[in-house]
Amino acid sequence: MKKTELRTKYKALRNSLSETEIDEMSLAIANKILTLPIWEKTYFHIFLPITEHKEVNTEFILHILSGKDKDIIISKVDFMTQKMTHFLLTDNTVIKKNKYNIPEPVDGIEVPSNKIDVVVVPLLTFDKKGHRVGYGKGFYDDFLTQCKPDVVKIGLSFFEPEELITDIFEGDVKLDFCVTPDSVHSF
């Protein structure tokens, strides 16, 4: 299927989920992440969910990262430049939703992309080859190309993979793993 069709399909599927289902599946995803070979790494970039879009609730993963004393990085998006700036999440970080309801840090200690070891990537769906469909703005593809070559890219999905996304572009960055409530897919 093409990305536009997949976006429509998976937005509808996510919209059909209740808050309880989202929390239960998000917790299952967080527990599956514990099985990944990433825990010797230090700098973990994670997205804060847009609850209005019924994204995976990453709060459970944040608790795991915090409990393992990892450095957690979150981003702020500049829609004018189409760039993301990354900040260390600390006890003093003030989070505010932007006009698109994306929770973002107001400011803080900036972290360069090339210092990040693991990136937890938001998505709508993915395929069996590790390609993902996001919202179509290319923020994460651009960001991931600025990371070090061995950065570990982990997608989170409530749903199992599609067979194949048919309109992959050269600039699309593949995932290394995608975690669902029932399985861990490795690419």
TrEMBL record:
Binding locations of substrate: I50, E55
Family named by the database record: Belongs to the 5-formyltetrahydrofolate cyclo-ligase family.
Xref: InterPro entries: FTHF_cligase, FTHF_cligase-like_sf, NagB/RpiA_transferase-like
Reactions catalysed, as given in the entry: (6S)-5-formyl-5,6,7,8-tetrahydrofolate + ATP = (6R)-5,10-methenyltetrahydrofolate + ADP + phosphate
Entry cofactors: Mg(2+)
EC annotation from Swiss-Prot or TrEMBL: 6.3.3.2
UniProt-listed Pfam families: 5-FTHF_cyc-lig
Name of this protein: 5-formyltetrahydrofolate cyclo-ligase
Organism whose genome encodes this protein: Flavobacterium caseinilyticum
BP GO annotations: folic acid-containing compound biosynthetic process; tetrahydrofolate interconversion
Keyword annotations: ATP-binding, Ligase, Magnesium, Metal-binding, Nucleotide-binding
Claim: Ligase is one of the keywords in the record: yes
Superkingdom of origin: Bacteria
GO molecular-function terms, A-Z: 5-formyltetrahydrofolate cyclo-ligase activity; ATP binding; metal ion binding
